[in-house]
Amino acid sequence: MSTLPPCPKCSSEYTYEDGPLLICPECAHEWSPTEAAEADEGDKVIKDSVGNVLQDGDTVTVIKDLKVKGSSSVVKVGTKVKGIRLCEGDHDIDCKIDGIGAMKLKSEFVRKVL
């Protein structure tokens, strides 16, 4: 059995060493073992659509019309969302939107208000 870590990009278990680097044969991602250890130690950083780091309590703007699942309503482009909370999972922003209520958003569909 291999003691090498899985690929951080695609989670493939078939990684191999090539000199000082680890390489994934499935997605061709290359990384150093020290980078992988440092990434495991730090918390996950959640960024908005343009790369700004998000934190709890930030105000964000929706950049795309978003259909609300199970409803006929839509969150329109430019809607401001105040006091977000970051959470784990695919939808990593927990918030309340005026007129719609509590919902979760993906960080890739919002932009931080600076």
TrEMBL record:
Residues 3-32 form the Protein YjdM N-terminal domain. This is Alkylphosphonate utilization protein. Residues 46-113 form the Protein YjdM C-terminal domain. PANTHER family: PROTEIN YJDM, PROTEIN YJDM-RELATED. InterPro entries: YjdM (IPR004624), YjdM_C (IPR013988), YjdM_N (IPR013987). It comes from the Bacteria. Belongs to the YjdM family. It comes from Serpens gallinarum.
